[in-house]
Amino acid sequence: MSENPLAAAEPWDLVADGYAEFAPAIMRPFSAHAIELAGLSPESRIVDVAAGTGMLSLLAAPQVQSVQAIDFSEPMLARLRAAAAAAGIGNIEARAGDGQALPFDDDSFDAGFSMFGLMFFPDRAKGFAELFRVLRPGAAAVVSSWAPVAESTLMRMMFGAFTAADPSIQEPEPNFLSLENPEVFETEMRGGGFAGVTIQRHTTVLTFDSPERLWETMARSSAPLLLMRRDVGEQVWAERVAVMREYLAANYRPNTPLSTTALLGIGHKPRP
Ligand SMILES: C[S@@+](CC[C@H](N)C(=O)[O-])C[C@H]1O[C@@H](n2cnc3c(N)ncnc32)[C@H](O)[C@@H]1O
């Protein structure tokens, strides 16, 4: 059993509504870039592993033949299905499952993605190997993970607020054993069988029209914050929220750009 609470479905189940509403502002540009990198065509059949509320699936669907979206959180999938229906998109099939044991035959897809999903798997090697297995030879895969917090002014701003509310929470050091480290990322993706692997940094810049809007966007879409709230209980949480909002009010000037950086691993399944 993994020690990372985000490797379980429950926090994602609980954050699904807020994620669907507030995460796109942060996450959509990364999915849009991943789609460009994969070189899709109208005939492409694609798989979106750990699809969540469907950021990538919904963007890609109009450009491809079909999308299989898989995630272990039913509430996230429910939001994906609702968004697809609202947009009149009929070529996404969303189903519940574990990204470490994909319910698809070998060689089924023309491209595969896992945006900020595989990074949470307790067995990432299995995640890469499964993504590889279900792609046809020649197909491309794009997998994303966050760069270290120190590279993201958005995350640094948020950690400033967390530390103000609870000094035991400090900005994390880069984790050189995780996909934050491009060498680890490349080695693990190659280990899954992928060829031609490159790891690219991709940065997006966001602005918020007020510190309140910044707080709302981050707090409502964040599974880690939801877990923190549950751990400390409602009374302590309310006190902490007040301190965090105060911190942001003092430190964020409306419309100041804040950046966030991801690493995108790109590779393909070699032809025999
Ligand atoms: C940060 S969200 C990313 C969602 C979406 N790909 C995006 O870019 O917005 C992480 C997603 O990974 C899913 N997830 C985590 N571990 C999983 C696993 N082992 N199998 C399937 N889904 C998983 C969670 O349920 C959640 O929807």
Beta percentage is: 15-25%
Query: Which ligands appear in the coordinates?
Result: S-adenosylmethionine
Given the structure, what is the number of helices?
A: 10
The CATH first-level class of the domain at 5-148 and 173-205 and 261-268 comes to Alpha Beta
Question: How are the SSEs placed, and which strands pair?
Answer:
Layout: H1 10-22, H2 24-38, E1 45-49, H3 55-60, E2 66-71, H4 74-86, E3 92-96, E4 109-115, H5 124-134, E5 135-146, H6 153-165, H7 182-191, E6 195-206, H8 211-221, H9 223-232, H10 234-251, E7 258-268
3D structure, described in words:
β4, α5 and β5 form a beta-alpha-beta unit. By secondary structure, the protein is α/β, with parallel strands linked by helices. It has a domain at 5-148 and 173-205 and 261-268: 3-Layer(aba) Sandwich (Rossmann fold). It has helices at 10-22, 24-38, 55-60, 74-86, 124-134, 153-165, 182-191, 211-221, 223-232, 234-251, and strands spanning 45-49, 66-71, 92-96, 109-115, 135-146, 195-206, 258-268. A seven-stranded mixed sheet has the order 3-2-1-4-5-7-6, with helices on both faces. α6 crosses α10 (234-251) and α9 crosses α10. It has ten helices and seven strands. The mean pLDDT is 96. S-adenosylmethionine binds next to α2 and α3.
Short description:
Helices cover 44% and strands 21% of the residues. By secondary structure, the protein is α/β, with parallel strands linked by helices.
Name the descriptors:
272 residues, binds S-adenosylmethionine, seven-stranded mixed β-sheet, alpha/beta, 44% helix, 10 helices, Rossmann fold, globular
